Amino acid sequence: MKLGEIFQNIGIFFANRSYAKKIAKMKHDDEIFIVLAPKFGDLIYGMMYARELKKERGKKLAVLCPEQFAKFIESYGCVDRIVTVPNTKKYANKHFLLLGMRHTFLRDRYKYSDLVYTLPQEKYYKGLMINEIYRDYIFCIDHDNKQFLDLPETKVTAIQNFEEIKDRIIVMNPYAKSHAKNCVKILQPVADMLVKEGFVVYTNVIGDQKVLDGTLPLKCSIEELFEICKHIHGLVSIRSGLVDFCLNTKCKKVVVYMKKKRLRFTHSLRCFNDNIVEYFVHDKKGADNVIKIVKDVMVCRD
Predict the structure, then answer these.
(1) Which of 11, 79, 174, 260 sits 20 to 30 Å CA-CA off 161?
(2) How many domains does one find in the chain?
(3) Which CATH number belongs to the domain containing residue 226 in this structure?
(4) Which pLDDT tens digit goes with each residue over 65-96?
């Protein structure tokens, strides 16, 4: 660890000590207390081993999470108490992110603790897969019995004649907060190819986001999108929380990463589901390869 990182983490430790104590006071003595960060990925991975941790330690399970996650936490069926906090950007940035860094810095102290923070900082876990980080360092359990999100069946209303065309539907998601705007330029040729191959292609959009040319708009709740991905042919997406949320749905998936540096931490979704193909775009040649990869997965493997 570099000297600058050491001072940064020391600052984080003292700056968040008081808030860490407040969270610790929310915990009851007879329970495991999991603190979830306000991102879909942390919801999915943070709850993946919760049931087994509860079973292994023989205690009740409580979860601290943003209000928007409460209904999803209930669907896991293993949580005895849910403590919610406001869905605010300030809360997310000020508390969860810094607490996650603080917990990573002091991870040996928190190991085997009944107070669990689920926001690991990837730079401290290079060379490990996501499941290894959560299983071995966050939850500290000896087996790999994972539990995935499984929502109750939802009626699909956003797509007309869904039952008749679901086998030919591919949903594309070119938008993610963490990636550059040129994601649309990279996925547009992919959409053109899929339309020519006879698929019914939808672009998942929210607000004023624009659909990819030649595709149909898909505007629906996250619960309905989850249901859609359980039945359609495929999902082509920039790496985002949507991919994490729909991780265990049955459709084929191609996930595109817009990063120059390749990290095994993020390039590891196949450890959860073998119907996922991941690809990193480094340059123009890499962007052209996305078309070939998607065609191989969605067309040639049928």
Answers:
(1) 174
(2) 2
(3) 3.40.50.2000
(4) 888 889 999 999 999 999 887 765 555 555 55
